[in-house]
């Protein structure tokens, strides 16, 4: 048996301002069952997770040894997390027809190497994508890195309508009972959802001309914890409002990924706040908490069942030819909640 | 009894680029014993500690509520830490002739309000100034904030020939036994002392045209802990070399105090390292560890006695009229070790 697969390769790593035509290239491959090695499977990809981090994996300016995972080099297939259905298996743990979650490729069919599969999909595939990536980031950012407790009065979340931010706001409000949750997002429509659906007490549009004043007005008692998915101007403003011993949790830096070379976001006055107010800034990668994934997914699943944490998703249908457009959507902030590409058959 | 005192006032808070004539004003006051309130003393000032933080207390750009102590406003007397001899006392704990350490003023004689005195001077007044300010910053920065242990292989110290840096390097090498201590300073003469006297394995001159390459060459195995007294370019370089879970301890930012408005020191690539390498950046003020001062001063005193930590001082003689020049000396980096003004009688 043989499958004709279409797969996106990285033609040339990109600097700032992603141009998908220059960066990616679609190739056609034959995947033959006879070529499978022990432990490998052939998978039909059904859902691709769109994550900001993917943009960083193909940035020319990256220094390879300073990334948390190998970059994707020129001529290598583009990777992602996602869900696929096994169509051929030489792995005794997985049978034909199994839906699995793990590392996949930008492709319609692919061979999954040993170790790519994390788990079988327990229910709705878009749930596990949302929980297993953004949910975990929100969970460990709040619980482990931020060590947030109900004693914390004011929490600010940047990129609050995004995949991680929308869950962060809801856990802060509905699980931890934080009194004052401030979300920052990039449109009035997103801001409306922040307060109506995601548990924010105040929502701020960072594109508003009065954003700086709005930010100050929204944090009259200063900030205990700043959950940062964005970096840039919002981070600079937040540093000027942190309480003594305030914590800044760095989960992402989406404003940086497509504009790497711009400098000067953190001003000197706000840097000095780190000293004056004994601020702690700390970054993390969810994989450092791998031993606690089961517990975290259990908690998140329960909260979702109870309706305390709504998994906000934006699933868009795409033919394999259109897959790179998902990265553009993310960088333009066109999503609310977790952006997921649902692969549909092309005409 | 009455004393004619000369005291420096802040005429006008200053922005960038300190001009001492515009900023300070010397006034003459009569201090009368009869005016002393209960608990007050009249003191003859003998040693004034020159600390970078004093520069920040008079910066126009400061937002008052964002400082760790009240700024010194226009028309108020300039403050400092230092040693004085009590000449008149209405405080039962302190007698005429006592040498005391605590908050003083830029003056030859002054009235010390209740609570200004921290302790009687146990020995050489310049020792307690060095230990009680810079020594404590080095101690708590390493031991408490950085939580440095001999497991840490590489430590980088900025402003390493300065008052805090010189002690930090020695504790790291001679007490904690850190394998690779890298000090950064601003002249070849300072660099020579770093390796010969202060325990550094490598010393780097940040004014050298090859500094960036030198920095990379000096940290081939990356950095466990960066003890930062400087901020700016050195911080940016260090962030690019931190190990997984590396710690950046922010003790000071001397490169910022006289050039507040310049932006753009922390570049985007190095900020993203906070995420990729799970870096923790943390600031502190020694007073947050006040309960541990006695233990810390005991340890530091013992290490000094044993010759493991040499207290590096630069004591300069000044008439009261020349006191503001000490601040200039610090900002220009003219000191090695703790800069202390010894007040001498005018001609």
TrEMBL record, chains A, B:
Keyword DNA repair: no
Transmembrane residue ranges: none
Domain Enoyl reductase (ER): 19-341
GO molecular function, one term: oxidoreductase activity, acting on the CH-CH group of donors, NAD or NADP as acceptor
InterPro entries, A to Z: ADH-like_C (IPR013149), ADH_N_2 (IPR041694), ER (IPR020843), GroES-like_sf (IPR011032), MDR_fam (IPR045010), NAD(P)-bd_dom_sf (IPR036291)
Keywords, comma-separated and alphabetical: Oxidoreductase
SMART domains membership: PKS_ER (SM00829)
The protein's name: Enoyl reductase (ER) domain-containing protein
